[in-house]
């Protein structure tokens, strides 16, 4: 308690700030007890002492709320909300829209997942330039993908990386049975699932009565989100659950199964063998989520009016990963193709729009096509020419590539 003696001798107010308390907690599990003793002793001696803790992990606040004592009643809590997907993607030092999307899809939108330090003039993943879509390992334009892959390997796959164990550390701080929550997150990581789908894949969880409280706690902590199709009643059983942040989806799907072998493995070989084969499906899933966020947050850029309702349709006659209504009443339907290999995207859109009941009777119905590459002079599988003809015939149709999705540059530079 030498610190308090110094405060007492000086007779002036003193503030102790621990900036980024997670590494300290990891190194010293008794830190909470030490801090509580410090605060209690200062209070009993009437010393003008204040303790300030900062953390990137919301689980730290949960730990404080769970304890009894002086740390259970913080004077002020300033939570940092998730970043908008565009801001998060570019904040990693991305230099192209495709790299911004890949950074967001793999490292997520939590403020704590941004690089600890970054020179705004230097990309976090090194100099890049746009390349042609497609590599043997999948996942995007070659040059951009190489840089993002290097950043992910350094921060997530390297046991010394700052995000290597971040999800497990979060669970251990937040929950009393972290392994049970981890198995649910792993079940949800590949794709959104309904109740039965979660039960089927969550090992060790027996019955809905056991699953319900775990899912509820994951929702409360913002790790899982619950969704209903746009055409469903609020009490409908068609709800499904999904991991809320892309980084947690990537980590629980790809990193957790490899965690025990990563310290002794060649990362390049392990990536090509165990991660790359599943990346197309993974990036397709998060391109769908980015498309919904684009319509929700940036519809006015294309349509001149904001969106009023945005979501998806499933469990009915015509599923859509994206659908919604604009403020002017126009209905939008979206299809997403990450790989660019869909044979007849316009035909599929026509069939689904004809079959769906959502938006029926509306004169203004806009088909939206979200593709990895969507410039007129580049091929995206066999459907590019047909897409151009569709756009020419339908003035409401839109082709949205990664530049439109992510913006042409960082939000502060690209404008609103």
Give the beta-strand count: 10
Q: Provide the gyration radius in Å.
A: 24 Å
What share of residues is helical? 40-55%
Whole-number average pLDDT? 83
Question: Strand order, biggest sheet?
Answer: 6-7-8-9-10
User: How far apart lie the N and C ends?
Assistant: 53 Å
H-E string: HEHHEHHHHHHEHHEEHHHEEEHEHEHH
If classified by CATH, what would the architecture of one domain be?
Answer: 3-Layer(aba) Sandwich
The portion of residues forming beta strands comes to 5-15%
Number of helices in the DSSP assignment: 18
Description:
The protein is of the alpha/beta class and 416 residues long. Among the domains are: 2-72, no CATH class; 166-258, Winged helix-like DNA-binding domain superfamily/Winged helix DNA-binding domain (Arc Repressor Mutant, subunit A); 302-414, Trna Endonuclease, Chain: A, domain 1 (3-Layer(aba) Sandwich), CATH 3.40.1350. Helix content is 44%, strand content 13%. It contains 18 helices and ten strands. It has helices at residues 2-10, 22-27, 31-44, 59-66, 85-90, 97-107, 142-157, 166-174, 178-188, 195-201, 208-220, 246-255, 267-275, 279-303, 345-355, 384-393, 402-406, 411-414; strands at 14-19, 49-54, 193-194, 224-227, 240-243, 307-313, 320-326, 331-337, 365-371, 398-400. The chain has a five-stranded mixed beta sheet, sandwiched between helices. It has a three-stranded antiparallel beta sheet with strand order 3-5-4. It has a two-stranded parallel sheet with strand order 1-2. A hairpin with a 4-residue loop joins β7 (320-326) and β8. α6 packs across α12 (246-255) and α9 crosses α12 (246-255). The model is unreliable at 118-142 and 374-382 (pLDDT under 50).
